[in-house]
């Protein structure tokens, strides 16, 4: 294998390294640092494919490495963060010792995200329909949604939003819903560009512009709203455009 063919794989390993470090900080409850490393990992995840297309190299090894790295960064880390969020709520409500005495601790439900992400990634590797679009919510999108929750909880002044994230019934329902979205037969557009013409990419450009505006105005709260907007635009595009 030529050196040029290895470069995308090295970038993919950067994703894996970032995800592993993020997992360590997530276990320790340092959600901000975990979020930074998740973001770095997702950037690596984007650029490994970009560089592979730029160098016109591809292969089965790169495909498998990509999914294995995503499994850590966008599968294990959000599962740990949801686990910690549910656990923290139990501690805050003085229910932690009571719940941990049960055979199945309720915070383990958060790890369903990890299982669902693994199942989605395995299906993605075998599904030839997902070369230009996605079927089901991509794992990085799910990951960003979950990683943003503790950051929103720390930063926002909106009590309703804080109360939602502090409610384990909401977090458990969200865990199941995101797990469902990752594996449902729902077509979502990809942000890969074949060309940069407005005519062929106006939905993508509209989404990117709206995302930037939301990030500048709402900070971390923008992240779940951007994911929701992505889903809505994808459904509208598929049905009407």
Can you walk through the features of this model?
With 241 residues, the protein is mostly helical. The chain has one domain: Four Helix Bundle (Hemerythrin (Met), subunit A), CATH 1.20.120. 76% of the residues lie in helices and 2% in strands. It contains ten helices and two strands; from the N terminus they run H-H-H-H-H-E-H-H-H-E-H-H. It has a two-stranded antiparallel sheet. Helix 2 packs antiparallel against helix 3 (60-92), helix 3 (60-92) runs antiparallel to helix 5 (112-126) and helix 5 (112-126) runs parallel beside helix 8. The longest helix is centred in the N-terminal third of the chain and has 33 residues, at 60-92. The radius of gyration is 18 Å and the shape is globular. The mean pLDDT is 90.
How are the SSEs ordered, and which strands pair?
Layout: H1 3-27, H2 31-55, H3 60-92, H4 96-100, H5 112-126, E1 133-135, H6 139-155, H7 159-165, H8 168-183, E2 187-189, H9 198-218, H10 222-240
Antiparallel strand pairs: 1-2
Helix pairs in contact: 1-2, 1-3, 2-3, 2-6, 3-5, 3-6, 3-8, 5-8, 9-10
